[in-house]
Amino acid sequence: MSQKIRWGILGLGKIAHKFASDLQLSDTAILQGVASRSLEKASDFATTYHAKKAFSSYEALVKDEEIDIVYIATPHALHFENTMLCLQHKKAVLCEKPLGMHLTEVQQMIEKSKAQNVFLMEAIWTRFMPSYQKVLELLNKKAIGEIISVRADFGFQTPFQPESRLFDKKLGGGSLLDIGLYPIFLSLTVLGMPSNIKASARFTKTGVDSFCAMLFDYENGQKAVLESTFEVDTPTEAYIFGTKGVIKLHRRFHEANTVSLIKNNKETVFEVPHAGIGYIHEIEAVHACMLAGKTEHPKLPLEFSLQLMTIIDKVKSAIGLQYIV
């Protein structure tokens, strides 16, 4: 492989625009092609972000021999189908979260990537943010002693629109899969797999959760108190409580520019801004793996995605949420 990574983008919604914008910040990246079911939409997107090719089908993009890796930005329910299409053609994949709709899908995607010996990663950009690296640095130094609990929320108010992706059950709508994943991600990173999961939710007329509250128990007595909602604007902050202090990820914690260490009634504030919109850090991490010939990233290994979906499936079971996919 050359020292340039040639990207394709599959699905050209809101998040694809953000990703393509940050892709242009990388000296290593080339936006080789973009695909939409509408050629006009693909052509407009290609013009805006200087892509070399525009495709009117996902299949055509995947078959292009000049594309090294595909960023999948389609709705949740399509991630499995789209990822498997790419892997079948030996294209590396960075797939937006959640990687799949349930554990079986994630397992099959991982098995396929390993069989094809190609790179696969769930696009949890938070893991590569400077603020998150700072949090992990503080935890590794035992800056707050032994961890007691984690508390995190993610909520914004949006009107109920049955046709919206957020509320469409067939597309994987609901707060849990869309934003509840971030508090769960934090708890899994910090505390590992819970021993017991309790959860409750409120549902919309379309059968997806508009609010989800979660309580995770751990074998050594630690707790995680997590929440996601489309009903109200919440602080969207995260706290890690320890025996000697507290670490706070400021609003919005999944893309924070500020981290606080609170000890002995004193707050030390760390300004750790991300570059661009924030996706550039994830992009460069993927580039490093691709150029080194690795098929997964050590900071976000495939085993982590398996554990994350295992937890999400248990939360879905606890609140009685089922998807038809």
Automatic annotation (TrEMBL):
Superkingdom of source: Bacteria
One GO molecular-function entry: nucleotide binding
Ranges where the GFO/IDH/MocA-like oxidoreductase domain occurs: 132-247
Domain Gfo/Idh/MocA-like oxidoreductase N-terminal intervals: 5-121
InterPro entries membership: Gfo/Idh/MocA-like_OxRdtase_N, Gfo/Idh/MocA_domain, GFO_IDH_MocA-like_dom, NAD(P)-bd_dom_sf
One Pfam family linked to the record: GFO_IDH_MocA
Family from the record: Belongs to the Gfo/Idh/MocA family.
Name by which UniProt lists this protein: Putative dehydrogenase
Naturally occurring in which organism (per UniProt): Kordia periserrulae
Organism lineage string: Bacteria, Pseudomonadati, Bacteroidota, Flavobacteriia, Flavobacteriales
